[in-house]
From TrEMBL:
HAMAP family: Ala_racemase. Pathway: Cell wall biogenesis; peptidoglycan biosynthesis; Amino-acid biosynthesis; D-alanine biosynthesis; D-alanine from L-alanine: step 1/1. NCBIfam families: alr. This is Alanine racemase. It comes from Shewanella surugensis. It catalyses: L-alanine = D-alanine. Its EC number is 5.1.1.1. Belongs to the alanine racemase family. Keywords: Isomerase, Pyridoxal phosphate. InterPro entries: Ala_racemase (IPR000821), Ala_racemase/Decarboxylase_C (IPR009006), Ala_racemase_C (IPR011079), Ala_racemase_N (IPR001608), Ala_racemase_pyridoxalP-BS (IPR020622), PLP-binding_barrel (IPR029066). Substrate binds at R130, M303.
Amino acid sequence: MKPFPRAEISRSALQHNMERLREIAPQSHVMAVVKANGYGHGLLNVANCLEMADGFGLARLEEALMLRMGGVKAKLLLLEGVFRLDDLHKLVEHDIETVVHHRSQLDMLEQVSLSAPVTVWMKIDSGMHRLGFCPEEFREMYARLVVCPNVAKPVHLMTHFACADEPNNPMTQAQLEVFTGLTRGLPGHRTLANSAGTLYWKDTQADWVRAGIALYGISPVMGDLGSDHGLQPAMDLVSRLISVREHKAGEPVGYGSYWQARQDTRLGIVAIGYGDGYPRNAPEGTPVWINGRLVPIVGRVSMDMLSVDLGWNARDQVGDDAVLWGRDLPVEVVAEHIGTIAYELVTKLTPRVAVCLD
Ligand SMILES: *Cc1c(COP(=O)(O)O)cnc(C)c1O
């Protein structure tokens, strides 16, 4: 018997999405962003399926070390850089590249004594105002990096977009202009685009695109789907019915008893809940795919289970599969019902969900 709940990860979908991104950004290298456990799809699974990626992007050193321990030889980049001086030695030891976005990281590079220089991507704050050197300090900080013996030459250049997921927002063009103006004539590679930049703002693709969510077959843009861009969902989140019961009009279900059936029906109890990472705030009507159709969640999601209204003439049986999202029910649609984004749903799955590669 297959474990449940489980996240079934499709190798062929991941590989298809990688090929699709190469078609969309034909002049660029593709960095596959696999932070946060490969957006919940399993860090090593994803890296092993995507051997054709030109490199992998991570948020934390621990994630990069897990890839190296797992035998991954590809280029690795820490998108937030290092937070402790000692970590710089680990970068050299394990051949990991780093972003430098703050003076404190530059100070560490100047203080440490390394056995070999590290490859650095200097991050510019072109308008998002989260991480990166602001335009006024860019020249001075760039000059310090260039003369630092612990920094490999050339220094590469990056920025990140605040609003690339809004195809009509002028912010992205403005950020592109700030970045282009500051970096004109400098050597090194450039990277600006996340998935939304890659899909919607061709001018931002540059030497490297950094694609996360699109790799997993999910659209970064509210109101459209991965399939609108020729992408395939890489995760099916599957559990099963552990009870099917007759339910009378007027009877409530679940904690708080706040939902009551308007007519006689059958309820299905699905073995998944907030203890698995399925959000407790999923409202009544959030869809679940069971036996070829969508049925609505009713009552409150509890820790280990949730209830669905199967309908009075339902033929579903205990043991039948219930799909919370995936090929037949895009996670973008579920996210919209819940009032969040698909990124959060896939990354929040807990270790109780078995991650299975097909
Ligand atoms: C997470 C991240 C990405 C990937 O973003 P998506 O929207 O998932 O494509 C790209 N760049 C940086 C710096 C990131 O932190």
